[in-house]
Amino acid sequence: MVSAVSPCPRESNNRELIHIHTTALLFPALNQLLPIFLLFYMAVEVYTRHPNNKLHIVTTLLFLFLSLVFLGDFLFAILPSYVAIEVLRYVKYTAVFLTLTAALYFFAYISRLRLRGLLLHLVCLAPSLGVVWLLVSPRSLVMVSVEGVRDGGFSTPFFAFLVAAVGYCFFWFFLCLFAAMRRTSTHHQLKERKRNQIILNGCLLVGCLLSVGYAGSKFIAPDGSPIADMIYAYGILAWAYAIRLSMVRYDMLSTAGKRYELLFELSPNGTVVLDDRGDIVEANGAFRKLAGIAREMRLRGLPLSALFHGNEAFLLGYRQSFEAMTPLELELELVNKAGERYEVEIRGEFLEIDGKLQSFLVMLDKTEDKNNARMLEQLAFEDVLTGLCNSRRFEAEFRAMLLDVRTHGGQLGLLLIDLDQFKWINDTLGHTAGDQLLQQVAERLQATIPPEALVARLGGDEFAILLPLVEDADEPSLLAEGLLKALTKPLVLRGTSYVVSASIGVVVAPEDETDPEVLLRQVDTAMYAAKHGGRNRFCRYTPSMNENAQEQLKLLSGLSTALEKRQFELLYQPQFDLATGQVTVLEALLHWRSPELGYVAPSRFIPLAEETGAIIPIGSWVLEEVIRQLRIHLDRGCIGLCVSVNLSASQLREAGFVDRLSELLCRYGVPPRALRLEITESTMITDMRRMHQVCKEWMIWALCSGSTMSASAIPR
């Protein structure tokens, strides 16, 4: 029979001691070693992010001192008693006072209190007096062992100082946080306020945990349960993590990576990172706008093709660039998911991150730049008033079409249009009405010309039409006839209908010429031929018009000096009364005898004088000469003599015309009844309102002077 053998008492005691020793080491390892590693990691993280920043240096020291506190607790738990008390004195509690000092500096920096120089250091270094106390009076801290559980004991003065130091520090902590919260109360400091709120919550949390741990150690587990120590440890660790979180999330850690992250997010250019499948890894707000995607929509993992479906040029260019691993460069128009159109410039590069190939695309929104460029081009090549081509674009198109004619054959028609009544409407109704007239004329020209033709406003009331692909040389003339019909239809200006006409010159290249300057001179000559031929007509250029143009040039040159050189003379044509056979009136006729040109008929030079404005000084000379000669004939006894003088519209539009006329009559002592003013129908139609005003002023003057007025045409 085999009997059971009981274990040796010594062996049993050894096992029990090993179990107790293992259990005693487990809690210090959990309470102190894990926080030490975490705090050391956070200290290294903070310091490497910005080694030269004061706040980062202080935060690093704060985490290192906290790790020394936990290291002191760990060593105190495992080392022999005679060494443990020294660790408690020179490691743990020295680190406690240094932690309080570093924490004060930290809170002073984030709150930006107006503490400078010596005052700042006095406030922050006050807790470090505890280190001096421990060095001077080491017996203020002793070892206490209750039922095998070690603990630190304090002298009453030292305990009072420790409590006062902690209270002092918490006072400054909350004062600094209050100042920081107050300083960041405005909406533009919202991010900094959130940072301070996290730190405040961390302080409140650690305060609560320390209170719970203290209450538990005194009332719930007064026998030295390690649970209270764990609450202490992880409460302080939570506070340290709150500081680290606030700095990382709300930009207190100003690292190169953070700066690039800010640049990425705040960049006005759309930026997106894609993986090797073309799926989105990351995108900024500007890219979301270009893609027409709401900010809250998840983009990660979404294929790029899903955002720009239908933009085949972009997707094809991206695929080709990705396959060839070459930088992407594109300029195109994109249509996003919202249906918005953007003109973008796309630049792309490829990079390998953690062994994975990714593409980095930057989209520059060029829509506004393109619109501005188009606007500048429009201003450079388009007439702002009418929307037609301007003279600059006309010249470029004209030369290009002529080059095509010379190179490939064919014919090109050129029409030059000048409005006949524009100056009168512009002067009478004002520039606004003149602008409206030009706009309506431009619309009619656009509606009349064929699709391949180009119409331009060259300036003022002058328009030009280029008619390419002409098969028959008569096509431009047929178009000119259609334009005349379209332009003579009434135009409505300020609620009233007006009829305007035009004079059109026509040339055809290469039949007439192929040189652009020569063609422009020819079409200008043809246009003036139409105007001199009675207006409201067109003229096809003929070589004989050059002779007429040369003659016109000579007339203009001579006309400019004819008055000064006394080359004008007045002849009088009598008008008879058929019943009595007596002369009733003499009509004054102006003649021009030029030494170079010979006798020039009025029909040749009067229209030129009207166009150039020379008619005004010539007309003034005629009036004064007629009145002067009237005085001579009256002195010779021709009492009933009456002389008729033709007036031009330009003379009547001159301000003070009646005053000057009355002054001449008074100066020479000629009665008004001796002068008859001839106002032609064309003159009256030109400016009816002005005709009424002049005749009214003349009649009032004549009646007031006791005489009568005689005029062949008085509008009624």
From TrEMBL:
Keywords, ordered alphabetically: Membrane, Transmembrane, Transmembrane helix
Domain EAL: 552-716
PROSITE patterns the UniProt entry points to: EAL (PS50883), GGDEF (PS50887), PAS (PS50112)
GO biological process: regulation of DNA-templated transcription
Domain GGDEF, first and last residues per copy: 410-543
Keyword Manganese: no
Stretches that traverse the bilayer: 20-43, 55-78, 90-110, 117-136, 156-178, 198-216, 231-250
Xref: InterPro entries: Biofilm_reg_signaling, EAL_dom, EAL_sf, GGDEF_dom, Nucleotide_cyclase, PAS, PAS-like_dom_sf, PAS_fold
Domain of life where this protein originates: Bacteria
Domain PAS: 256-296
SMART domains (alphabetical): EAL, GGDEF, PAS
Protein name per UniProt: Diguanylate cyclase (GGDEF)-like protein/PAS domain S-box-containing protein
